[in-house]
Amino acid sequence: NSVKKLRKSTQSVLNQMSYIADVASGSIGGFGESLKMSGSILHGSNQSLSTSVASLGVLSNYGEEGSNAGTGLRKIVTSLIDPSKGAKSAMSDFGLTTASLYDKNGHMKQLGDIFELFNKGAKAKGLSTKQENADLHTIFGQSGYNDASTLIRNYKQVQDYKGKAESNSSGYIEKLSGKNMGSVKNQLAVTKDNLDNVEREFATTLTPAVSTGLKALNKFLKKLADLPSSAKKGIAYTTMGLGAAGAVMVGKNVASNIFGNRSKQIAKAVQLAQGGAKATGGAAPAPTGLAAIG
Length: 294
Hints:
This protein is mainly alpha-helical. The chain is about 80% helix and about 0% strand. Residues about 285-294 have low confidence and may be disordered.
């Protein structure tokens, strides 16, 4: 039973944090860091997980995340639990006393409801912005003032997040996973459609061109087949000659690339030797190697 209870509690925590992380600007990791700083005092002051995460979610929307948000929230709750004499006087400007913060059973009200009391009290008392800010600074101190001011102005969102987090305390992770999988499937379907379209375009564009080329080639081959044997032999010898000439050209380019100017120098030396042989009446040696190429 204790194991089942722990598993259910863990699932509830993860589902609520996942929901708030999905709708707000924060992340589960960021909320975890915040709760390291504030979890103990939030639990001790009767704050539910949904209230805690909802408050952190609203703070994340205004750029306050991680340990900074946790420290600010801890300061807010500490200031409400044990307000100084000056803080109690400042609270009276909102029409509030310390008793206003607790229910009939002596438990601290949820933060969203307390923030609403401050918001409506300031309006009911007609506090100027200057006076309201000064009082909040007195109540929550320097480290809690900014976060308290943000949450009081946005108490409706805190309450909204709280309610929706509780309604999504089970099954939200599965729902979110299903939504993400659906998104992946949709993208894969779009990709498949695009590939099919490209395939059709290629088939439409290339097939006629390939078909025309094949027809021309077949027509040419048929004409070759119809030629007399003598003509075919002539074409064969011509083709072989062109192939040999091409090979000579390739070999010459390769030799030039490998030996550079040296091939020209070797060829020139051979030519000089041939000239010397002719001058002495001897037979010129047959050109060999690179001289034959160049």
